[in-house]
Amino acid sequence: MTEAVDWEPSDAQIAAMTVAQRRALIQRLERPAAELIHPVIAARIRRVRVSLMMSGSVALIPWIVFLGLTLPNRYVADHWSATWIGFDALLVLLMAMTAYFGWRRRMLLLLTGFATGVLLVCDAWFDIMTSEPHDLPVSLATAAFAELPLAAVLILGPLRIMRLVASRLWLLETGMRVWHLEFPF
């Protein structure tokens, strides 16, 4: 039988702790990762996902070479309007979801914000690459002054939020980059 403990550290005691002591305390208090997902299952899922991404990366190299050698420079596309309208509708949906999650202060903002930023980069790329010569200045200006700056905000914002959350949980060492942050399981 576990005995209830009424001890609660004071603000002064917490402030007096070193970074390592705070990190150790948080790790002791957090829910164990094994309670959330069995370590064997987590390892299996990770292996499968990493394998899929590695295989896909390798498989895309010959595909890119093949496309470079076989695709025509000019191509008339069916459903051109539906393609762009659908893409822009998806962009509007993700922007609206990002705005909603930001307004409601929801963590899903990280996913929708990042995805919206990536779609804006794709939008700029395809606008520039598919524009006729007389439309190119407008496509370049739109990319430079609207799509790419907004994409930077939408991609860097979630990274800053992730850094803030990791810092508050004492998961980042001083000077450590968010790219080096590991999953706790």
Automatic annotation (TrEMBL):
Domain of life: Bacteria
Source organism (scientific name): Tsukamurella soli
TM segment ranges: 50-69, 81-101, 108-126, 138-159
Keywords: Membrane, Transmembrane, Transmembrane helix
Protein name: Uncharacterized protein
